[in-house]
Design goal:
Layout: H1 4-10, H2 30-42, E1 47-49, E2 55-57, H3 82-94
Antiparallel strand pairs: 1-2
Biased composition (Low complexity): 1-10
Protein name: Acyltransferase
Region (Disordered): 1-24
């Protein structure tokens, strides 16, 4: 008794053509990928203090109305991984471009 024919008759219809794969949400550059990895590794937290003295999450409390310079200090420890994270966060949240200051001997061929 042929069992294959009745099974094929009861089989569901073939599936429609698969949809296009979703867009790959990968970063646009190697730097963005590196930055995303550093954020996952270090989980940075940004806090600011508003004019009323309240601590706020993120950089919303940062007073950017002043015409003078703002000073940000990062605790570099080793390799300065906080630098690019700080630059990116200020640019993304407040539209501010941070200029880094570097201890000149660190740029010498033989660093201390």
């Amino acid at each position: 008794a042929g069992i294959l024919s009745p099974l094929l008759d009861k089989a569901p219809p073939p599936r429609a053509r698969a949809l296009d794969p979703p867009v790959n949400p990968s970063p646009a550059s190697l730097f963005e990928e590196w930055l995303a990895q550093m954020r996952r590794l270090f989980s940075p937290v940004f806090l600011s203090v508003d004019a009323d003295g309240r601590v706020r999450d993120g950089l919303d409390g940062l007073d950017t109305s002043t015409t003078g310079p703002l000073l940000f200090v990062g605790n570099h420890q080793l390799f300065g991984f906080d630098g690019p994270i700080l630059v990116e966060q200020l640019l993304r949240e407040r539209g501010l471009l941070l200029r880094a200051l570097v201890y000149p001997p660190l740029l010498a061929p033989e660093s201390p």
